[in-house]
Amino acid sequence: MTLTGASRNGLATPRARQILVPRSISPLRDPADSRNRVVRSLAGLTMGTSWSVKLVAAKTEPLREIERNIQSRLDRVVAQMSTWLGSSTISRYNSAAAGSWHVLEPEFFTVLTAALALAESTDGAYDPTVGEMVDLWGFGPEGFEGVRPDARQIEASRSRSGWTKVSLDQAHRRVFQPGGVKLDLSSIAKGFAVDDVANYLQEAGLGNYLVEVGGELRGNGCKPDRSPWWVELEVPREIAPAKRPISETLLALHGLSIATSGDYRRRVTISSDVFSHTLDPSKGLPVSGPLASVSVIASDCMMADALATALFVLGPEGGRQYAERHHLAARFIVRTEAGLRQVMTPAMVAMLM
Fold it and tell me: Are strands 248-252 and 17-20 parallel, antiparallel or unpaired?
């Protein structure tokens, strides 16, 4: 097998394939009684997308209860954090009166705390209060009306947003609604859901698994043959093969998570102009520019999910600089006249075999 080399600046030289392996990977061991165990698959629907779980279990072990419990965990995330559900906790908060405090469920409070911390760390490039902007551009429950928002509407949505307006009461697990603030946790809730399912599997004694929700993944342990859970890093597929000279990149998802944010995942078209669903909070506009996608590898999927969005908003240079300052393993796919170009941070280059 021919592997890809990488230069000191993180530019990989495309060849046949790239292999990424965690630097701290421990020797893979057979799952208990591996001769009687196989990889079993479960799947379902959640959050407007699909979920899947691969786990190592006995061939005859009934998994209906496991599947029901996984779906229940995912349904709980939806009931708390989906803006598409009018009765959800987040929808009730978004429509609440100014000056009101709201006690949150532990899961919601955990996610919102992490989202606000990342907002502070990125100077607002990541902002969980973009709910009104999301609705304005047609990416919310009401859908797209076919008309581009005007400058007045955009400025109005910006004025009602802003992560600094949201206060948390850690002692009582409460959040303050200053009036008109609309939370949107779609860029972090899927990652949290992956972690929640993974934690449940660990508690159930099923420590060898691969969990996926809407393309965000977390893996642990190994298969019965002691091989890791191999996953392929996402590349924009709408581009002609000749214009995407990016090598297939495989990652051993061993005690790790990976998430990707890209402008090709969800879009609207207005008068032949295509707009990405990822919004720049500082401008109230969809992110535009040469950056096609960002993939982030982290220990937990919640942060990988949110960080992929944050780095995408920050752009190819600002995102790379932030990732390097915080020692993040990230890959940026950038569009150029010659086609796609990938840039890896040193932390990801260090994982190349």
Answer: parallel
For the chain, give every domain's residue range. Answer: 5-80+191-349, 89-177
Write down the mean pLDDT value for the chain: 89
- In 47-87, where do the E strands start and end? 49-58
Please work out, in degrees rounded to the nearest 5, the angle formed at the alpha carbon of residue 283 by the alpha carbons of 277 and 284. Answer: 45
Looking at domain 89-177, its CATH superfamily turns out to be ApbE-like superfamily (1.10.3980.10)
pLDDT digits (tens, 9 = 90+) for 98-156: 999 999 999 999 999 999 999 999 999 999 999 999 999 888 887 776 678 899 999 99
Beta-carbon contacts of 260 under 8 Å, excluding residues fewer than 6 positions away, are 215, 216, 233, 234, 293, 294, 295, 296, 308
Compute the half-sphere exposure of residue 66: CA atoms within 13 Å on the CB side of its CA.
Answer: 24
User: What parts of the chain have a pLDDT lower than 70?
Assistant: 1-16, 24-35, 145-146, 237-245, 265-274
